[in-house]
Amino acid sequence: MSKQLDCNVHDYFEIICIRKSWVTVTTKAGENFSGEAHDIALNSAKQELLMLKNTTAEIGILLTEVARLHAHDNAIAQHNFLINIT
User: Fold this and answer.
1) Distance CA 37, CA 59 (A)
2) Helix ranges (DSSP H) in the chain
3) Which CATH number is associated with domain 7-84?
């Protein structure tokens, strides 16, 4: 079973989805994905995915694979932040 996220970290994901924030996510494998945070969903293995919409597609990223979350370029300055998830 995959590691569970700390509730405080999960809150960041919920907040960016509620705000439809523009974010860049860096995975533990070093991949970067950017887009508008859209939703948190369960996949068939019941793992949570952060759904990002960009100009070409919807992207699903396992929350437990996120190493860094950067909310940026949002109109309200307080909605921009960077957290490293360990």
Assistant:
1) 10
2) 7-19
3) 2.30.30.100
Closest among 23, 7, 17, 19 to 81, alpha carbons compared: 23
State how far the Cα of 64 lies from the Cα of 86, in Å rounded to an integer.
10
Going from the C-alpha of 37 to that of each of 23, 26, 27, 82, the distances in angstroms are 7, 14, 15, 14
Separation between Cα atoms, residue 21 and residue 8, nearest integer Å: 18
| pLDDT tens, N- to C-terminus, the chain (86 residues) | 457 788 889 999 999 999 999 999 999 999 999 999 999 998 888 888 889 998 788 899 999 999 999 999 999 999 999 999 97
Q: What share of the chain is helix, strand, coil (3-state, %, to 5)?
A: 20, 45, 35
